[in-house]
Amino acid sequence: MKLTVIGGGGVRSIFLAKSLAWNAHRINLTEVVFLDNSTENLATFGEIAQHVFRVIRPDIHFSLTQDPQSAIRNANYIITTLRVGGDESRVRDERIALSHNTLGQETTGAAGFAMALRSIPAILDYCRMIEELAAEDAILFNFTNPSGMVTEAIIKSGFKRRVYGICDAPSELIRELPEILGCDESAVQVECYGLNHFSWFSNITVDGVSVSATLAKTPALYEKTTMQYFSPDLVAQCDNQLLNEYLYYYYYRQEALDAIQNAAETRGEQIARINQQMREALQTIDVKQHPEQAFDIWMQHYLCRENSYMQSESQKEKPHPRTPLTLTQFIEEPDTGGYAGVALDILEAVNSSQSKRIVVSLTNNGTLDFLRPDDVIEISCDLSSQGLTPVKPREVPQAQKNMISCVKEYERLAVEAIMTQNRDVAVRALMAHPLIGSWCLATKLVHAYLDDPQYLHWH
Q1: The architecture CATH gives domain 2-165
Q2: What burial letters (b/e) apply to 325-337, b meaning 16+ CB within 10 Å?
Q3: 167 is in an annotated binding site
Q4: Residue ranges per domain, the chain?
Q5: Is residue 100 marked as binding?
Q6: Which residues are CB-neighbours of 2 under 8 A, at least 6 positions away?
Q7: Cα(194)–Cα(399) distance, rounded to whole angstroms?
Q8: Which of 35, 132, 248, 407 could form a disulfide with 229 if both were Cys (CB 3.0 to 4.6 A apart)?
């Protein structure tokens, strides 16, 4: 079976290569291709990823390429993980939003719209190639942000293959709960519902017994997990439902905006600076000849990124900061699934008698009855050899319904605007977003983001 990663030269590609290598036997991989349109990225991050993969599975053919046709041809599984426009575009997106006194965060609000503006057309171009060249039963896993909107655009474009949107944020919180609850991971069940980067976790049980109310009052939950960004009083207001970390930008909107505006640099600028320092350091060595040294440079800079995540916005440090590993330690450290875990679980389940609960973005089809059937939602699914069965949440409080409906209206209109290249619909989309909610502001933002020759044909 052939697996292709579109965007395989990204900074996180090393984690993806490790996860695929350690789990290749689960999905009968015989070939892996990392595709990227950047020569520099393939020669640095791609080379490190290739070395990691080949150390673990030298028997499986692994290659790097800039040729999309050869990469996609006969692929059985495709993972898309693109950052169209690179760090420079992210910096611009965030600064434009902040200059209009609204949140500048890469996947949320105005900057999230700008990211979708670049991501969706690029992904749809690749989808046309996938339909033409990939295996007839190929499965697409979209990791490209904003994942839910990109996945919705893929589905609404008429793409005829199976597609799942994947984000590791829900899985990260769920993996943190067993330690707090003092039980095995297999004993915990959670119902996640909502939209990508906009979801809640309800009906949390251990061996079938509800622990939601007790968990919501447990101090360790707010000290050792991504729930550290939220107040127990807020969780009580949310009917003891836990919160996706990105909800911080909504429940603490002014605090987040003030913190970002008062910081010396935006998150995008911080990432761009760290990445540039990393590239400059990697250019001083031959990555292929000195993989250990290249890995050390990558690890050092990656941890600068990872361990500073959401610090400026929340004024809090990550609950589990990572420590540096050598190349050997990294390869030998047990793989937790992480970035590719959900995709691997889905692929393995086809030939397994075991069931598992995962969180993915897919078509609603009535699971959340207050949304349209063709809306894409983020939802817990029970996974078995019979396929994916969305778990209908037992209770969705009216406040959550209102918030989800509002953001879904924005997503729906934003996808329509981008696919039809319509400025008026883009304004309506941003008007609908709760972090914007103003015609004047939405109009100014659309004008600013579309002030580029590539958008002259928008009507």
Answers
A1: 3-Layer(aba) Sandwich (3.40)
A2: eebeebbeeebeb
A3: yes
A4: 2-165, 254-328
A5: no
A6: 29, 30, 31, 32, 33, 74, 75, 76, 77, 135
A7: 12
A8: 248
Give the integer Cα–Cα distance in Å for 440 and 140.
39
Residue corresponding to tokens 């996609």: 72
Query: What is the total residue count of the chain?
Result: 459
Give every CB contact of residue 186 below 8 A, 6+ residues apart in sequence. none
pLDDT, mean of residues 193-201? 98
Q: How many Å apart are CA 55 and CA 295, to the nearest integer?
A: 13
128 labelled binding-site residue: no
What is the DSSP annotation of 181-200?
Answer: HTS-GGGEEEEEEEETTEEE
pLDDT for position 315: 78
**Predicted TM-score (pTM) of this structure:** 0.96
The kind and range of the H/E element at 253 are helix 253-262
Q: What is the pLDDT of residue 339?
A: 65
Please give the single-letter amino acid code of residue 240.
N
State pLDDT tens for residues 47-83: 999 999 999 999 999 999 999 999 999 999 999 999 9
Question: Around Cβ 374, how many Cβ atoms within 10 Å?
Answer: 12
Name the DSSP letter for residue 46: I
Distance CA 32, CA 15 (A): 14
**447 labelled binding-site residue:** no
